[in-house]
Amino acid sequence: RRTPDGHFETVPARRLVTGDVILLRAGDRVPADARVIEGEGVVEEAMLTGEPMPATKRAGDPVYAGTINGRSALTLSVENAGDSTALARIIATVEEAQAAKLPIQALINKVTAVFVPIVLLIAVLTFLVWWAFSGDFAFALVAAVSVLIIACPCAMGLATPVSIMVGTGRAAELGVLFRKGDALQSLAKVTLVAFDKTGTLTQGAPSVTEVHTAQGVSKAEALALFASLEQGSAHPIAKALLQESEKHGIPQLEASDIKTSVGRGVMGNISGSKVFVGSTRFLEEQGIAVPRTDAQTATPVHLARDGQYLATALIADPLKPDARAAIDALHARGIKTALVSGDTEATAQAVAAQTGITEVYASVLPSEKAAIVEQLRTKHGQVAFVGDGINDAPALASATVGIALGTGTDVAIEAADVVLMSDDIGAVVIALEASTATLANIRQNLGWAFGYNALLIPVAAGVFYPLAGVLLSPMVAAGAMALSSVFVVSNALRLKRLRPTL
Questions:
Q1: Residues 29-54: what's their mean pLDDT?
Q2: How far apart are the first and last CA of the chain?
Q3: Distance between CA atoms of 238 and 316, rounded to whole angstroms?
């Protein structure tokens, strides 16, 4: 809704230009990068920052295209539109990173390009040598044909594709999709796995982790007051308090005269008492003393009634249950780990301490994540990045292997090489195990195929005939060739028995 002359008109977002003044209504998606010139409210920026807590916006604060406005109307001045927005630049970064990736030529193609001419040459030489020494054209021809049959590169041709087919199929059964073929090979060489925090290692939604009450106040009473004052609010903190009270089956009380102070707290009347819920600063402004908390990964929300402090609820984005086990499993395999997060240093360090991650990069902007991944590649070699949001897309595309959670955004999934079909972080370990097992299986198949040819080509060529009278007929050569292919396929089918260790 643009206002060129004081009257609002609805125009397509692509027609916005720098300097346009637009009205953003409650619930609208921001159409361009802009700055607030009037109004106050909260904007959900999780799609860009990855952080679940909405950001408070006042006059002078920036907002970004694609983010979602809360319940307050805002007047904005457009600063960047179209291809110049932060979202458009992230998409361009993804495309650039994907274009820079070179396809890995399969080892078998390189070998076969040399192997086939050599075999043809050996067959010709076998024919010429035996014809020259024996003078028997038929004998020389049989020996040459035996060489061609025994050396038919069926086993080598099957060695790689059949293992990939079975390995990726089994991985899919275990919840891991390899979207790009070379990821199966690249993942086995990874020396470090970097993780996003919110929605990847953590559950991505705030919840109540602890409730501390003043003397004489029960947890049930505190939750009843919290929920009663927050009922009807769409704020993530309010939802967390409401969910906690519902989980314990606590009924809500009737609240009236509810007034909200954006980004700070809420007040209202419950059963004739004045009740306050909000931040430390909000309650202190009402003359209410609240205890200090040292929780680094949680947001404290305080409760007071008639000027008296009652309780504190700690709201946090908890770790996924399997996060620590997944990190430990990676370390056990000799793979290093890192955390790359847009959250504060204190929060990122606390999460790293809980999971066992030793290398931490905090307060990282979406546009900087790809650069961090490049630094890690320079420092550690092959790097995999695990993420779920639009803000993770550049890093997913820049990493040697990008791994996206299937519960994440479409942009992240499109930028990734591997997709985990759930939000179970333990599937990262499954992906690595599938990759390692498949590559080992391919090496076994290639070793058999080359060993088989190295052993039997001289026999078929008649090298041992003068000494031991051993010479393969074309029929025996054909049987041996077929058995080698059966061995390769049977060995590949062992991947069906792959079981996750986590």
A1: 84
A2: 52
A3: 12
Q: What is the dihedral of CA 301, 303, 309, 310, to 10 degrees?
A: -110
DSSP letter at 387 equals E
Tokens of 395: 């890093």
User: How far apart are alpha carbons 389 and 395 in whole angstroms?
Assistant: 10
CA 286 distance to own-chain centroid: 44
Q: Would the pLDDT of 93 be above 70?
A: no
Token pair in block for residue 164 = 């990939």
The DSSP code sequence of 113-132 is HHHHHHHHHHHHHHHHHHHH
Phi, psi of 329 (to 5 degrees): -65, -40
- In which band, very low, low, confident or very high, does the pLDDT at 94 lie, cut at 50, 70 and 90? low
For the question of residue 322 being annotated catalytic, the response is: no
Place of tokens 């050396």: 151
* Torsion, CA 339, CA 343, CA 348, CA 350, rounded to 10: -150
Beta bridge mates, 313: 211, 301
Catalytic residue among 20, 33, 196, 322: 196
Question: Which tokens hold the place of 195?
Answer: 């993780």
% of the chain with per-residue pLDDT over 90:
34
Scanning the structure block, which residue is given the tokens 């977002």?
Answer: 13
**What are the residues whose beta carbons fall under 8 Å from the beta carbon of 475, sequence distance 6 or more?**
none
Angle between helix 366-380 and 86-100 (nearest 10): 30
Q: Inform me whether the pLDDT recorded for 85 exceeds 70.
A: yes
Is the per-residue pLDDT at 90 higher than 80? no
Verdict on whether the full-model pTM lies above 0.85:
no
How does strand 68-69 pair with strand 41-44?
antiparallel
The predicted model gives 61-73 an average pLDDT of 89
- Residue predicted with more confidence, 402 or 49: 402
